[in-house]
Amino acid sequence: MSAPTSHLEIRSLTKRFGAVDALADVDLTIARGEFVCLLGPSGCGKTTLLRIIAGFEKADRGQLLLEGKDITELAPHQRGFGMVFQSLALFPHMTVAENIGYGMKLRGAGAAQRRRRVEELLEVVQLPAIADRPVAALSGGQRQRVAIARALAVPPQLFLLDEPLSALDAQLRDSMQIELRQLQQRFGVTTVVVTHDQTEAMMLADRLVVMKQGRLQQCDTPTEVYRRPANAFVAEFLGAANLLPGVVQADGAVNVLGAHVGASSRLAAGSAVTLAVRAEDVRLQAVGSASAPHVVGDIEFVRDLGPLAELIVRCGDERLRCRSADAPLREARVGQKIAVHFDAQRCSVFPAAHA
Ligand code: ATP
Q1: How far apart are CA 133 and CA 129, in angstroms?
Q2: CA distance 186 to 238
Q3: Residue 239 C-alpha to ligand 1 middle, in angstroms?
Q4: Which helix (H) or strand (E) holds 118?
Q5: CATH for the stretch 244-354
Q6: Nearest of 186, 185, 187, 218 to residue 204 by alpha carbon
Q7: Is 297 in the pocket of ligand 1 (CB under 6 A)?
Q8: Which one of 147, 256, 266, 335 is CB 3.0 to 4.6 Å from 244, fit for a cystine?
Q9: How is domain 6-233 classified at the CATH fold level?
């Protein structure tokens, strides 16, 4: 298989707002047809990066190359990108069809061709039969979907979306995530989406770009980022991992919670580490029947969530979040003792300084 061709290359982008490093030396190469999600907590620089790619914001330093051509200084409308940004409102005095067909009209497409394309796109965003409504009569969620249709009406060089599904209710959001992903694959358009929702990012992206304070932390497939987080921040941000202080023993076992409970490391004996273990990778067993090395904790909280039970177990100073599909745990009571063990394959161990 030949390597995917680079479509957008971001080189050393740096942007400061006063004392804040919104972006610090960001390098990123996006392949043709790739779906990339920029993910991170509020203020990490996601929107700034997207706005610089779009041309709405100017970087202090760095370069943007599209198919090898320098576009750093081009105005937004010269870039040929399809955009769904909160700030790019629909034209309020036009109908849905006029909004979606606007770009096609500018390029000289006839009325019948525009109408066909509008109907097709409205079908895709699950809004058939609203072409002739004024946009003023639409809900926030409907407007977002019309904005997606408008951005795709003329196949864009790059499709840029800032929190595109934020105004939708949970059910519609779920189905639109699948639609958006299928739409992107059908059009084969290189896409960059900003979201702070990790489930949404994992649902959509070929590659996640996790950011913290203007710096890229990890760029990889959702599975890789989830299974092999680059540092404790990524582990905690993606999947609500428990972070525990520990020490590596002579045999490589990691002692946390004052005992060896299943995790190991290749770091030198005596190293102070942070162990990340996700709630679903904490194994809970009745005290007495636990075979593997374990510690005993006290159940502080139990909730039956349907497919899973959510528990909080106190072990010394630490409170562990645990999630389990085991039926007996749904019946567990607050105050009960429980044995805690970790699946060594599912733990990530980082030098403590990186925490
Ligand atoms: P959110 O998820 O809350 O939208 P974000 O990850 O998109 O956050 P940015 O909006 O890119 O983050 O902001 C990055 C940092 O730059 C933040 O600290 C923000 O306060 C700051 N910042 C962004 N735009 C400006 C501006 N126009 N003036 C001053 N500071 C700004």
Answers
A1: 9
A2: 28
A3: 24
A4: helix 111-124
A5: 2.40.50.140
A6: 185
A7: no
A8: 256
A9: Rossmann fold (3.40.50)
